[in-house]
Amino acid sequence: MRMEVKNALYDRSLSRAERAGRTIEQMTLEEKVSQLVYKSAAVERLGIPAYHWWNECLHGVARCGTATVFPQAIGLAAMFDADFLYRVASAISDEIRGKYNAYQKIGDHSIYKGITEYAPNINIFRDPRWGRGQETYGEDPYLTAELGIAFIRGIQGDDPDYRKADANVKHYVVHSGPDDLRHEIDVKIDEKQFRETYLYAFARCIREADVACVMGAYNRVNGEACSGSTRLLKDILRDELGFQGYVVSDSFAIDDFHLHHRITDSAVESAALAFNNGCDQNGGTTFLHLTEAVEAGLVKEEDIDRSVQRLLEERIRLGMFDERACVPFHRISEDIVDCPEFRLLAREAAVRSIVLLKNKDNLLPLRREVRTLAVIGPNADSRAVLLGNYAGTPSRYTTILRGIQEEADQRDIRVIYAEGCDLYQEEYRELCDTDLIPEAVIAAQKSDAVVLCLGLSPVLEGEEGELGAVQSDRTDLGLPGRQAELLRQVAAVGKPVIVILCNGSPLSIPEEEPLIDALLEAWYPGEEGGHAVADILFGKRSPSGRMPVTVVNSVEDLPPFESYDMKGRTYRYLEKAPMYPFGFGLSFSGFTYEAEEFPREAALGEDIRFKVKVRNTGTYDGETTVQVYIRNNTTQTKTPVRQLVFFRKIYLRQGESGVVEARIRSRDLAVIEQDGSCVLEPDEYTVYAGGVQPDAVSVALSGETIWEGTFRTVGERREIPY
After folding, report:
1. Rounded CA gap, 576 and 643, in Å?
2. H-helix or E-strand containing 39?
3. Measured distance CA(600)–CA(608) in Å, rounded
């Protein structure tokens, strides 16, 4: 009988449901429960090997040794390029499989060595103080959805029978700090904002990308724990959105039910509450108490069977029980990990992610007259700022200093290096009376231009409890430590100053900005970050990144961090002029935008399609990002100030023209009413098409002209599915 069941699990003539179901029939309650935690036990008599479900691939295979490290997720978002992100994710999943196949050969089933990945993070980066904002695709629901879909498809592959790896959208659903309150906070949010901002990307990733897994967040929403809410996990996720995959809690989040949220009295009650309300698997060990919960009558064994069925079917779909010849991904060799092709891809991603925020008098790219260059700052030669959090270990990496030095050597340019100051401490590495700023001033005096490498690092922002971090969220948005002082003293020398910021969340520097001649936002750019920065500085590439977040002028411009109300947050609801707007970014070239075949009227429920003609009017070849925004002019319902509804990259040589086919989804013309209903109604809309957002600050900083037009929708008002 046991052999028959084992054959069923490995029998490709049966459906996935039959293979899993026949196996479950022979399992004891304890064996079933052992599959519902993040470290599933082996059931050797049934041919089920042990498996660890917790693995990470946010911007490359993470926490698992050598791997290609791409720019941090916020940098990948700054590319504004879903097609290229798909290429990055496909490379990451190749490395996932290559490493997994190698570990399987030696029987290693430990953590971070599997093919079920806890990424992408599609939470909305609503507040720049959140240290984990670096893991997201920024503040806009549409951008987040488009990039999330691309990443998921790249990770999971397109084979009709097998998944290359599992993607997981997290953290479901209203979750974005403060991180030190995440285990206890109860987020209050009305139904309109819940659906208008927080649910949108999850809904689209589930419906359009067939994502394998959804991770529940730590916090509560309107009184219910995200990893144990009937409304969130059953009514919305399963019934409304049609999710077919498996639900996992965030790591040890179910312990919070009795330890911090105080909504249960024991681990047994917590396990029962989470499981009965829709959580299939515990990213921890609390679900081991489900055996007691069944015996106490709190949980039904047939419900246990349903969740085990989902998990076993997923393992079958990943090819874990099929012969090597049957599963194309079993043939991916570990030799693909850290290969030259992927290093080049990481470099290209880093170049595309860099945003040029200022370029006074066209200082960049650097001219031939610059023969001596000072490279200064605590981030100049830092490996940590290349990587960000949730990163792998690159076998080769290029710091900003090294990248500049390599390029300068080829151009016979002398580079003088000075660290300048500690990243965040007033005293340099805790040595009393040690001041390195004078050395930086001397370096500036001896140079024709200065590159100042400033910003943050993962020790100053990230997840609560991360090893080596001194804080997770930020209370101040400015430069830490003595960095602002370093900038002021170096700028006082009078040489052209180029500042390169490395950070995961935006830095507000309105007082320092006038001292800067050129400003590059480089994020945490990955293993090839130094080469990418050098490519931009010396003009080998023209910058094309765009800001996926708004840079406010100060923390005083923000609502309280604990409030999830969107009033005054992000470009969609902003009330004060920002320093640098969402969608903003400069180029070494210039571009014009003109809509063609633009409809003046459309029936309700129809997508809006038109063309945007783009011309490169400058003297550099390069890419630009066509961005399309809409504003609802007539509805009585409160809607965003404007919202992104389309974006697309286009590469044009100098003097060349090209056409982008734009599409506005009819669903994105709907308004969300106060009760959460999604409504299409006859309205008038203003449409904007250009290379930046159509706000006054973007237009003033870029000098670009934004195309503008209006159209009306006609038909009977009606409610549509969310």
Report:
1. 17
2. strand 39-40
3. 10
Tokens coding 170: 């997290």
Which helix (H) or strand (E) segment holds residue 275: the answer is helix 267-276
Q: What is the enclosing helix (H) or strand (E) of 603?
A: strand 601-603
Single pTM value for the model:
0.97
Among candidates 145, 464, 512, 176, which has minimal Cα distance to 357?
512
Report the alpha-carbon distance of residue 414 to residue 401 in Å, rounded. Answer: 12
Q: What is the pLDDT of residues 403-416, one digit of tens each?
A: 999 999 999 999 99
Instruction: Identify the active-site residue in 179, 250, 255, 668.
Output: 250
| Structure token digits, residue 153 | 């498809």
By C-alpha distance, which of 226, 234, 230 is closest to 253? Answer: 226
> Which of 84, 193, 203, 211 lies closest to 147, judged by CA?
84
Which residue ranges form the domains of the chain, and what is each CATH number? 2-331 (3.20.20.300), 353-549 (3.40.50.1700), 591-720 (2.60.40.10)
pLDDT tens for 128-176 read: 999 999 999 999 999 999 999 999 999 999 999 999 999 999 999 999 9
> Helical H runs in 379-517?
384-387, 400-410, 437-445, 483-491
What's the pLDDT band for 1 if we cut at 50, 70, 90? very low
Q: Name the DSSP class of 623.
A: E
Active site residue 683: no
Query: CB–CB of 472/180 below 8 Å?
Result: yes
Question: How many Cα atoms sit within 13 Å of 488 on the Cβ side?
Answer: 9
Mean pLDDT of the 363-388 span:
97
Scan for tokens 């090209």, then name that residue: 658
Q: Which of 298, 258, 261, 297 is nearest to 277 (CA)?
A: 298
CA angle 174, 459, 473 (to 5 degrees): 30
